[in-house]
Design brief:
The chain is an alpha/beta fold. The chain has a single domain, classed as Rossmann fold (3-Layer(aba) Sandwich), CATH 3.40.50.300. It has a 5-stranded parallel sheet, with helices on both faces. The radius of gyration is 15 Å and the shape is globular.
Length: 177
């Protein structure tokens, strides 16, 4: 059983995909995103899954995707923003951290998140009033991200390269080439 070198968690627009891809390139490792895994397994985009099958169906698929990725992936892993809503996923992440894994919470402030999201309709959880929904989402999920994170890195108002450097510096020696 392999395991990820690092797992990135955080809300939508915190930079998980951008930072994760750049970090994987820097470390010479593969990048994996569980939202992409869910979309590939379902044969349709995440936004369409929400509309056609509802959030509970998506969350069940997401929980399975996270469990598989934590067992199989040996690079940089980014989880969907809501993956921490699952108690089973949080338990897996805490176990991964206890076994020496690094879980990085990419924390973003409301202003930066709202600017990054814009009017992006591919983010189904943000609904009709993205700013209000994002405010509630950031506040509501913060304790869940904190529960699983071994490191917190603020991404608001920062260039991706700065964030990648901070995350890389937080990794154990064996994880970096």
């Amino acid at each position: 059983m392999s395991r990820p070198v690092v797992v990135l968690v955080g809300p939508p627009s915190s930079g998980k995909t951008t930072v994760g891809t750049a970090l994987a390139d820097r470390l010479g490792l593969p990048f994996r995103d569980t939202d992409a895994d869910v979309a590939a397994a379902a044969g349709q985009p995440v936004a369409d899954l929400f509309v056609e099958h509802g959030e509970p169906h998506f969350r069940a698929l997401e929980e399975q995707a996270v469990a598989a990725a934590l067992d199989e992936h040996d690079g940089v892993l980014a989880l969907g923003g809501g993956a921490v809503l699952s108690a089973a996923t949080r338990e897996r992440l805490v176990g991964y951290a206890r076994a020496g894994g690094t879980v990085v919470w990419l924390d973003v402030d409301l202003a930066s998140a709202a600017e990054r999201v814009g009017l992006d309709r591919s983010r189904p959880v943000l609904g009709l009033n993205p700013r209000a929904t994002l405010r509630a989402l950031l506040a509501g999920r913060a304790p869940l991200y904190a529960e699983v994170a071994t490191v917190t890195v603020t991404t608001g108002g920062r260039e991706p390269g700065e964030v990648v450097a901070e995350v890389a510096a937080a990794l154990p020696e064996r994880a970096t080439p």
